[in-house]
Write a structure and sequence with these properties.
Order of helices and strands: HHEEHEEEEEE
Number of domains: 1
CATH topology: Nuclear Transport Factor 2, Chain: A
CATH architecture: Roll
Shape: globular
Low-confidence stretches: none
Oligomer: single chain
Radius of gyration: 15 Å
């Protein structure tokens, strides 16, 4: 039996992997981080609404990856700096929240908020939902 503290470590590791492959815009491991039916509230671009389903989420992220790669010659592309990371577990759900310092194309964006919701699929923590929004205060 896996202890609750071990589960928190696994959830934190899944979140760290996700952020690393996002920062590097490494498509295949990024894609593998997601659950089979994800949803995302994107903070950028022309899609402020919830994007639902694997095909739609991947298409939107692909466009973001292409745009971000065009602004910088190599990884890390986004220079992600997560702050105040909090990890919680509720049964088979893991919740990771944090604020984020984010640089895109050399431009420092206002502080961002992120919520990552992980679920267990085939005994692996996968990202089922991401909510991204700007924060007016740190």
């Amino acid at each position: 039996m896996v202890k609750a503290s071990d589960e928190l470590v696994e959830i934190r590791a899944a979140a760290a992997r996700f952020l690393r492959v996002l920062d590097d815009l490494d498509w295949e491991p990024f894609r593998a981080s997601w659950a089979s039916e994800p949803t995302v509230f994107f903070p950028f671009g022309d899609t402020p609404d919830r994007v639902t389903g694997q095909a739609a989420v991947e298409a939107r992220w692909r466009r973001f990856f292409d745009e971000a790669r065009a602004r910088r010659p190599g990884p890390p592309y986004l220079n992600l700096k997560p702050l105040d990371i909090r990890t919680e577990r509720y049964g088979d759900v893991g919740l990771v929240t944090f604020t984020l310092e984010l640089t895109v194309g050399g431009l420092q964006l206002p502080l961002q908020r992120r919520t990552l919701l992980f679920i267990r699929e085939q005994d692996v923590w996968k990202l089922a939902h991401m909510h991204a929004s700007g924060a007016s205060q740190p």
